[in-house]
Amino acid sequence: MAPDAQRTCLLGISAESSEELRELAAAASEDAGAASVSGGSQKGGLRLLARGASAAEVAKGLATFAASERDRVVEVKEQPEVRPAVAFVFAGQSEVRPGMGAELYRQNPCFAEVLDRCSLTLGETLGTTVAAAIYDSDDASLLDDARFAQPALFALQVALAAVWRQWGVVPDMVSGHSLGEYAAACVAGSIGVEDGMRLVGARGAITGSRARSGLMAVLFATEEDVTPVVADKGEGVSIAAINAPEVVVISGEADAVTEVLADFDARGVNAKVLHISHPFHSVCIDPMLDELEEVVASTSISPPKIPFASALGGRLLEPQESLDATYWRRHAREPVRFLEATQELARAGCTIFLELGPHATLTGLGQRCVDEATTWLPSLKRTGNDYRVLTDTAAKLWLAGVDVDLAAMADNCGWELLGPPGMGLGQGTR
To answer: 85-212+283-397 — its CATH code?
Structure first.
């Protein structure tokens, strides 16, 4: 059975004009796999993507489109004059969950190879492997433990990046939310996969042994509204993240956070307590900072090789600026300025934001940070259907002008590719 049983067939066509596109669609509808059908211009002004549960369904949709009628299996989009710039945005720890990416791990060799490579780097130092903690453990609480949760997220994200790279999608820029910046640094060429896994594994262990307990909560209010209330409560509570114009995370000692929440509740402001292992970016993680800095100082790290929008300060790093031990110490303690980092990416020309993480958390937030001219897409969702989410996103990327390798995607998903170059029909064979 195909990984995505409801989307087992895929056909992509590029053309310079509507007339050429309809001609190609008509030819493909008669024999989608015929070698005589031309794929049209690869740098044309229009792209068509037909997706269906069978070759017959795709052919019928193409025939309908060729007759100038709409069909639900066919999507067409005009191409931008310039290839859109893509930002990879890496999510933080809050969405880590058992079984995240399970369908990919069990059916996608590229994803499984990279995740296993990461898992083997740490071995069974915690009594089991990271891969087993994600996919094979009967104890769902394991990933509530920072010692597993942090390396698990890193492994998932670099594995997702490897799949996207295999499908021809590489970032023009990167950014990350809190812990996600470690994977962003890896994908940007600042740190190797094994070194990154060891560093994040050590960070998780240090967090588990040194950081104090407390609370994190989201307030649906502006930073300007939250700042004076937090300041009034003293060092016990801090602003941990500014995620959108009216989405601010606070963190710290339980009593202090609860007091802030009570103040805003009295004003009628909504809030949500987060399910997280520790209150990051607050006084509660101060006991771990010295040891974290020492571990980072012993790790080989170079400047990123592609533009890096840091959520520490919310700015693009300068060329050759180092992600040194001081950076990662501050990164753990100071607020995550996701809103500003995202706006910096948009100002730098990114129009497509691809989230790499267990769910579409940043996809939802990011749409509130920048204007409607940008597109936000997830790699996974907590609802599962990994291949559905991933291939739907790949299809949207291709239609938007990103040169997704449809042939590689079809092969990687267990589809048989039919048709000549420029037209890729994937028929499910599993």
So the answer is: 3.40.366.10
